[in-house]
Design a protein that fits this description.
alpha/beta; 13 strands; about 40% helix
């Protein structure tokens, strides 16, 4: 394994055991719900989080500021003088800018270190899948420079497709327009969204009924995989406290494409605060977003 440390965020929605097993650095984004703020070392059970949302409590989130980010880098520089940080999409947060400022401060204080910051232009387990690919390269002995180059080249090929139960959560957080939220609130209509090349959330389709929306995710995957069909050795699926629906999508993918390896995980509070309960998101490699 190459000697550099990969750092991700809670926005990547990776399981904690995966993070620990692969010795990943983790930046924790803060969130507040029902008047209580949760941060590094203070957690709320994710099921309780979604239960509070269903009761009508609306959470807010805050990004890691440059000084907090610098403290994370200082901590991880004790383990390695080469850090590769895959940030949350700059199209959804200012955290990439904070990381760039923090990296400059840390490298000025430690001239022998190198910190590479990459705007993943990804979210949830799309960001997680990109991290997973970087981990695979690191385990294969690739250098930080080689890994970073591959990641940058392949970001446009990391496809996100998802459906939400209520677009008002995304509108409240400024992630979609009011018009999109109003259209998506029509009874029985389920919006389908993707993440574009700039890392923004874009509504692309409206379907009627939950089951139809889940099948549409798999249809979109079939359309987008193209020549990357055989290179999708693992598919990531995240859910907003809707495991049964995530497993339905997994089973449909197995039936259609014969893919047998998946990582399914819940959407954590940082992303879930904006996507809401019932979200199902699918991530894979394809020809283009």
């Amino acid at each position: 394994m190459s000697d550099f440390k990969i750092i991700t965020n809670t926005t990547a929605d990776l399981p904690l055991n995966y993070i620990n097993e692969n010795r990943l650095g983790l930046m924790v984004f803060n969130y507040t719900i029902k008047g209580e703020t949760y941060t590094k070392g203070k957690e709320l059970d994710w099921k309780k989080f979604y239960a509070l949302m269903r009761e009508g409590h609306m959470p807010t989130t805050s990004q890691v500021n440059p000084e907090e980010c610098r403290e994370y880098f200082e901590e991880y520089l004790k383990e390695s003088d080469h850090l590769l940080y895959l940030s949350f999409s700059s199209g959804l947060s200012g955290s990439y800018g904070s990381a760039c400022i923090a990296a400059d401060m840390a490298m000025e204080a430690h001239p022998d270190c190198k910190i590479e910051i990459i705007d993943s232009r990804c979210a949830s387990m799309g960001e997680g899948l990109l991290v997973h690919k970087a981990v695979q390269m690191q385990k294969a002995g690739k250098s930080m420079e080689e890994t970073a180059a591959w990641v940058k080249e392949n970001i446009p090929r990391l496809i996100h497709i998802f459906t939400v139960d209520d677009l008002n959560h995304l509108y409240r957080g400024g992630r979609v327009s009011r018009t999109a939220a109003v259209i998506g609130s029509v009874v029985g209509i389920k919006p389908i969204l993707h993440v574009d090349d700039e890392g923004h959330l874009i509504p692309i389709q409206k379907v009627r009924g939950r089951k139809k929306s889940l099948n549409t995710l798999v249809d979109y995957m079939e359309e987008k995989m193209g020549k990357y069909r055989d290179s999708n050795d693992i598919i990531f699926i995240s859910h907003g406290d809707a495991l049964e629906d995530a497993e339905f999508v997994r089973d449909e993918i197995q039936k259609r494409f014969g893919i047998s390896t998946f990582m399914i995980n819940h959407i954590g509070p940082t992303i879930g605060a904006h996507s809401g309960p019932g979200t199902i998101a699918l991530f894979f490699m394809g020809e283009s977003r």
